[in-house]
Specification:
flat, seven-stranded antiparallel beta sheet, mainly beta
Length: about 140
């Protein structure tokens, strides 16, 4: 029988300070310093997938922290290929970009009216409630 503490840990709602669509900079790893946007968030694993704008093909963004997957031809006439697939990055290795200055900043939460909103600690500006990625 699980203890009360174990049950509490299982029921705990995982809340991350980053959301899909946030513009971020990678602060650790092989792509350190690269800027992109969050395409997917996995709160249970505390990981995110970060993509970057592709100037050649706007509909297909470049993956950051990409791994190469090799596909071998199975039938005659098929071609072998090397495909870049985005790998998840731990949420501690990315920082949200300040909307005002464009620098990396920490995120806080504060109550405005009856809502709790996210804000950039560097400039104090409120971040969008539902972050949507828009091309500038």
């Amino acid at each position: 029988m699980p203890t009360k503490a174990e049950l509490k840990q299982q029921a705990k709602h995982i809340k991350l300070k980053v959301r899909t669509g946030d513009k971020v900079v990678i602060i650790a790893g092989k792509d350190k310093g690269q800027q992109g946007f969050i395409a997917a968030v996995s709160p249970k694993e505390s990981k995110v997938i970060v993509l970057q704008d592709n100037p050649e093909n706007a509909e297909q963004p470049n993956p950051l922290n990409a791994v190469i997957k090799h596909f071998k031809a199975k039938h005659q006439g098929q071609r072998s290929a090397r495909i870049r697939i985005p790998a998840a990055i731990h949420v501690s290795n990315v920082m949200v970009l300040d909307p005002k200055s464009g620098e990396a900043t920490r995120i806080g939460r504060r109550k405005e009216g009856d809502k709790i909103v996210r804000y950039a600690k560097k400039s104090g500006t409120t971040l969008a409630d539902k972050a949507t990625y828009t091309k500038d």
